[in-house]
Amino acid sequence: MLQADFEFWQGLHFMLTGEITIPPTYSARASFGGWASINWFFMPHVDLRSDLIKQSLALGSTNLDATSILIQLHAFL
Questions:
Q1: For the chain, what is the largest distance between any 2 Cα atoms, rounded to a whole number of angstroms?
Q2: pLDDT of 43-63, one tens digit each?
Q3: Is the pTM value of this prediction over 0.90?
Q4: What is d(CA 66, CA 31) in angstroms, rounded to the nearest whole number?
Q5: 26 — alpha (psi -120 to 50), left (phi > 0) or beta?
């Protein structure tokens, strides 16, 4: 997994994440994933995060491609 986090304005983060999963057996293929994220810290201890996730999962001899959108509101102490 490799992640880059850019904060161009205070409290607003843009993140890119890439992931490769290599199974323990040599006969299986690798799976790949990538995220583009925006995380906004708009109050002390509160943030809103949005992720666009693209994955290609190796399942036997085929690939399963998936695209997801995830929106989260975090409040923490």
A1: 49
A2: 999 999 999 999 998 887 788
A3: no
A4: 12
A5: alpha
Tell me if 48 sits within 8 A of 70, measured CB to CB: no
- CA 56 from centroid of its chain's CA atoms: 13
CA-based nearest residue to 19, from 7, 8, 35: 35
DSSP-derived 3-state class of residue 68:
strand
Out of 35-39, 61-65, 71-75, which region has the weakest mean confidence (pLDDT)?
61-65
Bridge partners, residue 21, by sequence: 31
> Is the Cβ–Cβ distance between 50 and 42 less than 8 Å?
no
